[in-house]
Amino acid sequence: MIHFFCPGCWIEVDEAARCCERCGYDLSAYQDLSFEDKLLLALRDPIRETQRMAVYLLGRLGSERALSAFEELLASSEDPYLLREVVQALSRIPLDGSMRLMEGACRHPSTLVSEAARAMIEPLSRLCNGSASPGSRHGA
Fold it and tell me: Domain spanning 33-136: which CATH class is it, in words?
């Protein structure tokens, strides 16, 4: 049986519902969202695997819009596996904002997160400074 969830508050909704009865989200408008917008909404999904997949895909897309959401996750999430995925996604977005977040992640209390950030920061630093081409990125 397929279950449908509101992308605004993540309660289960009826397949035919046009609007979420809890938060009022316009479910019919969801279909018109871009793939990137849907991934950004999925960062709030209660299922950790869905969150991690959304982070991974946003990194692969090089989503600049994801930076503020990644910053929020780094500040609020206690899931080191999700945060390690955020660090890896940041390494694929060669912007100054990514570098700032990565530098902060180097000081994260989780060893899993801080070590991943330290391993990714040098290749990202080269990209942000323009000394490497995007094709030579770590993991590309």
Answer: mainly alpha
